[in-house]
Structures are given as C-alpha cells and as structure tokens.
C-alpha cells in the first residue's frame, strides 16, 4: 500500500530534474494532465501538482518559442522509483535559505543549465515566477545567450 509523504523544510525530499529526464529537458511541453501521467510513469509516484512558474525558451535552431509550465508538489503517494527516464536524487536547499539536513549534498548547479540558479530558489521559496531564456548553438552545444527570471504577482 502506498503511503503519503509530506515535503516540507523539516523533511525535504525535492526531486530536481536530470538533464536526460523529460522533466529536465529544456524544450518539453508540460501540461497538467501530461505532467501527472509523466510523474507517475517516470518516478513511480502520484502527486498533487500546482503551477509554480512559466518559462519561454528560444533557440537559434528553431523558428518558434517553447512554452514550459513548471509544477511543484508538496505531497506524494507511492514509492519513488528510478526509471530509464530519471534517477531521483535529494539535495540540500541551503542556497535557497531553507533548512535541510546536513547530510544532503548541495544542489549541483555546475551540472545543470546555467539559468537554473536564477529560478530554482524562486521555486523552492514558493514565489510564483516567469522567465525567458534565449539559447544559441556554440561548438555543437546549446548555451544560454540571454535570460531573465522574476517573481509575478499572484
């Protein structure tokens, strides 16, 4: 039987997207229903998700912008499972001024998109946000050329 677990600053169990996960790919289109299905298929859990932020990404390889909705979940049921799509990991959020157990490693921003340090603290601190990042191809890699992220009024 699946149990429910509450995610909170005293017991932080937040999953950060991995680059090879659909959750972590920069050009995925997330919608509420698809996201609920994806989280169950890719992580083995069910979660009540709420919209936390909105991104627009532009790439020099595409002739359109990509709209990405970012969701946040506070509770989940089920057993968190590693799949071919992702390997869930726990990280400390000391950078976001949230108390976490000392044994958790810090968020590995050096392994993530350069723009992630600007919006992840907003997500963790429950501040609604919006942002845009423009990417260009350089040396075969997709790199951000300019970006902005900010809080929005509820």
TrEMBL record:
GO terms for molecular function: 8-oxo-7,8-dihydroguanosine triphosphate pyrophosphatase activity; metal ion binding. Keywords: Hydrolase, Magnesium, Metal-binding. One of its GO terms (biological process) is DNA protection. Its cofactor is Mg(2+). One of its GO terms (cellular component) is cytoplasm. Gene3D superfamilies: Nucleoside Triphosphate Pyrophosphohydrolase. Belongs to the Nudix hydrolase family. This is Uncharacterized protein. It comes from Marasmius oreades. The lineage of its organism: Eukaryota, Fungi, Dikarya, Basidiomycota, Agaricomycotina.
């Amino acid at each position: 039987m699946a149990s429910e677990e509450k995610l909170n600053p005293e017991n932080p169990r937040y999953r950060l997207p991995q680059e090879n996960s659909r959750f972590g790919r920069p050009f995925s289109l997330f919608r509420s229903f698809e996201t609920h299905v994806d989280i169950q298929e890719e992580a083995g859990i069910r979660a009540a998700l709420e919209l936390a932020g909105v991104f627009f990404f532009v790439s020099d390889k595409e002739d359109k912008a990509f709209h990405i909705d970012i969701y946040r979940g506070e509770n989940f049921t089920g057993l968190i499972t590693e799949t071919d799509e992702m390997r869930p990991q726990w990280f400390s959020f000391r950078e976001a001024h949230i108390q976490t157990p000392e044994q958790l490693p810090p968020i590995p921003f050096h392994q993530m998109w350069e723009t992630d340090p600007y919006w992840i603290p907003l997500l963790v601190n429950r501040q609604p946000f919006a942002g845009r990042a423009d990417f260009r191809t350089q040396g075969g890699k997709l790199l951000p050329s300019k970006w902005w992220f900010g809080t929005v009024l509820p």
